[in-house]
Structures are given as structure tokens and as C-alpha cells.
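Ticket closed. Logging final result for Protein Atg16l2.
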Amino acid sequence: MAGPEASFDPTSGWKRHIVRQLQQRDRTQKALFLELVPAYNHLLEKAELLAKFSEKLHKKPNDVTSATHQSFWEESGPDSDQSSPPGTLRVKWQEEEEEGLRLDCGEMAYQVVKKSAALDALQSELEERQSRLAAVEARVAQLREARAQQVSLVEELQKQNAAQRKAYEVLRVHTGHQEAALRRLQEEALNLLEQLLQRKERAAAECNLRNERRERANQARVSQELKKAAKRTVSISEIPHTLHDGIREQTETLALAIKPESLESEACGKWKRPFRSASATSLTLSHCVDVVKGLLDFKKRRGHSIGGAPEQRYQSIPVCVAARLPTWAQDVLDAHLSEVNAVCFGPNSSLLATGGADCLIHLWNVVGGRLEANQTLEGAGGSITSVDFDPSGSQVLAATYNQAAQLWKVGEARSKETLSGHKDKVTAAKFKLTRHQAVTGSRDRTVKEWDLGRAYCSRTINVLSYCNDVVCGDHIFISGHNDQKIRFWDSRGPRCTQVIPVQGRVTSLSLSHDQLHLLICSRDNTLKVIDLRVSNIRQVFRADGFKCGSDWTKAVFSPDRSYALAGSSNGALFIWDVDTGKLESSLQGPHCAAINAVAWCCSGSHVVSVDQGRKVVLWR
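Final structure:
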């Protein structure tokens, strides 16, 4: 039976395991050194023996030899099977010693060579590192010098910035004062302008009053003279020719101040009198004819010039009683080198102008239903965006992408005047009712009035949105803008007189000949008619398939204002009836690209359309 020591101890198991592991490690490590320790001891013994041999050889070679042999024999003992003489042992020992020395010398030489090579490698590496260190130190010196320069430059720039900041603050304060002064001057200028306008109005009223008084006096005087002349009975054959001419000239001169209404009443009263004689009747009739002729000549001489300069008599303009609806394409031309942007008929309906992106304006004659080339106007500095004839048909005005409008005289190939002053593309240029004044609109958000006689900008109007088109009346002109608004301006006033909002960006405006209706084309694919008498939209035209192709698509009224005409992006022409608002017709023709502009001649017989594919089409 086991004693108490044999009882189970839970802690004794792991201890025994640790002890066994330690013992196993000791055995493993000891086994590794079992062979080394004897070899090391044997080497130590040999080293001691060799040391003793070397000492003896230096002192007494013979004694050493004998001692060595004696010790050798002692070590060999009586059990040694072989015996060698001392001379042999000495030679053998010397050979072993020389071999050992050679081995040691070779090993030492090898170590010396190896160490020398390593030393050379280290020396070259050291030299390389020293050269790199010198280069790095030189680079560091350069960088330090550059850093010092940059620091000085930064300090100088900081000083300059501080000085410029101070100067900027001074200039800002000065600018604020100048702006305040400018505002005060503008207000004073507006006040002075209003005062000047009021004075001009008063002066005009006084002048009108004086003219009325003078006219009444002249009328009374002429009435008295006519009455006296009517009472006299004179035979025309008895009057000398000189006297007859003098009376005729005097009567014509006096008749200039007579109103047609007073002349008519006077003539009616005269013809109600009893018949006197043939001679008296003839004299009175001749006086009336001369007076009427003088009045008509006076009206022709007056003209419509705002500046008071005499106007040239305009060519005869065909009167359109009823416009003819186009039904088919009569002539098709590839008129320009690139897309055609603008087209316009002259006042006489036989001359046509087209302008395109090739910077050229071509003039065409409409002869026998065909377009015949008349002239090419050169000199435009950019793409043509708008063309217009003056009321006489003798001048052409064009808007260009070259930030200017240019004026040509029909018959001259080179430009006559360049109206420069805009800062962006000029999108519209139109004559007023006189050939001496024009209006231009641009993408620089300005509208300008021009005196063409001096090529001088008489007025610049700043607008919130850029202008796409303008139309002109007598003193009123209208502009259509990209902010979906129509603005009305009066040449005699400084401000906008009226603003009418519409849906969609405005691309074109067309004013009827009676100046009572305005046609608007906009990017919402609709046409609108505004009645200018009530400033209200009267009609809105839509159609399936009609789409406004660009921001410069132009639509026009027919000459009799019965129809509205526009071109679509699919190359079709759409015609609406203005009175009913219905689509009258839709024409699919030779156009394969979007139609940019259309024109209806003043006689109402022809329509021309131009597109982005270089085509000009004459419709009949």
C-alpha cells in the first residue's frame, strides 16, 4: 500500500514535465559539445607541445631533438610497434613545421589580401560618400542662399503688398467719393435734361402759337385778296404776261400757309356765288389750281426728316391690297458659302438682299420668277446677322459679329460707314423712317441710336438683357430681349416707356405697315401678335411640327397684315391667318435644314426663305 507521499498531488505533474524538458535540453546541448571539447583539448595540448618544441629548438637543437625523441618514445611506450630513427623524426617534424608555417603564411596572406581588398572597397566607398557629402553640402549652401533670397523677396513683396493695400484703400475711398459725385452729377444731369425738355416744350408751344397766329393772319390776308380777286372781272387775254406771272407767283407764295380745309371752304363759298363771266371763272379756277399745286409741292418739299434736312424723293413703292399666299418654290439657289442668316426685300419689291456667315451680302433682282445676281457687298468683318434697306432703297445696313454695324450704298461694293461702339456681337440693325437715322441692338446688353450722316452714336441705352431684334417707327422703337420681355423706347425721352413680358426668349420682331400691330417670334415655339393700341397680346399662333430653330429665327407679317409667316427647324414654312388665328398652310419645300429667316415683298407677290444649309428659296 502506498504511503502518504504517493498520494496524488495535482501540482507535481507539471513540475516533473518541466524537469524532464530541462534535462532533455541539457542532453541535446551537451551532445553538440561532446566532440568539440576533446578536439579543443587536443588542440591545446598540441599548442603547448609545439611551444615547448620551439623553445628547445632555439636553445639547444640537439638536446631538444633528444628530448623530443625521448619523450616521443616515452609516449609511444613499450607497446609501440614501429621505431624510427631520430633523424627521420627530425626531418618529418621540420616538414610538418614548414607545412604548418606555409599554411599559416598562406592563410595570413589570404587574410591580408582580403582585408586589403575590403579596405580598398571601404576607401572608395568613403571617397564616394565624401564626394556626395561635398555635393550635398554645396547644394545645401545654394539652397540656403536661395532661401535667403526668397525670404528677402517675400519681405519685399510683403512691403509692396502693404503699400498697395494702403493705396487700394485710398483709391477705394476716392472711388466712393467719385461715385457719389457721379451719382449727384447724373441726378443733376437728369434734372437739367428734364428742365431742358420742359423749356423746349414751352418754346415749342410758344412757337406753335406764334405760327398759328401768323398762319391765321396769312389766311385772313389771302382770303381778302382772293375775295378782291373774285370780285374783279378781267379777261385773261387782256392781262400782260408779266403781270399774270407776278400774280401767279404771289398767289403760290401766299398759298403755302393756307390749310387745305380753309382752301376747300373758301373754294366752296366761291363756287356758290352767282356766275359772273367766263373770264372771272377761269381766273378763280387757275388761282385754286395754283394754290393746290403749291400745297402739294410744299408737302413734297417738307419730307419726314427729323433733323430738318431735305429728303430725297423716295422711289415709288408698290401698294399691296391683298397679299398672295405662296404655294410652290419657284427658284432655289445655293447663294452663300455657309449658312444664310438674314434676308430683306427692298421697298420696290424687285431688289433682294441676303446675308450669311461667309461675311458677304448678295443683292438679287427678282426677274420673271427667278433670282438674278445683281451685286456682292464686301467688307463685313464678321458673320451677317441682320440686313435692312432704307426707305429709299438706296442703302443697305447690316449687323455683324464683328461688334459693329456697316452701311453700304447700293451700287458700291465697299462699305460706306462702319458703326463701331458695341462690345459684343451686333444682332440687329434697322433704319428708322428716315435714311439718316438707325438703331442697333447687341449682345453687350445695349441698344444704340445712330446719326448716319455723321456716323455718330447719338444715344446708348443700357438694358438688363441682350437684344435679339429691333423694329422702328416714327419716334418709337421696340427691342426684343433674351429675358422674355419687349421694351418700348422713345427717342425724345431718356427712359423706357413700356415693358411687355412674353413667354419664351424673343428671337424676332415684325411691325405692320400701319404700325398698330407687332409680331413676335419666341423660343417657346409660338408666334404672338400684340395690338399696340391697347398693349395686349391679341393672338398666339401654334402648330404641330413648328419649332423655332435658333435664337435669331425671323418671322414677318404679310404686307397687308393678313398673315403671319415663319420658318421651322424642319425646313417647312408655316402661314397663319392673323384675324382668325388658324393655320392657313404649311409648305414643305427644298429646305433640308432649319429656316433662319423669311421675307415678304411689299407688293405681296413673292416670299423668300433662307436656311442653315446655304439655300435661298423664292416662293410664289
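The chain is about 40% helix and 25% strand. No further action required.
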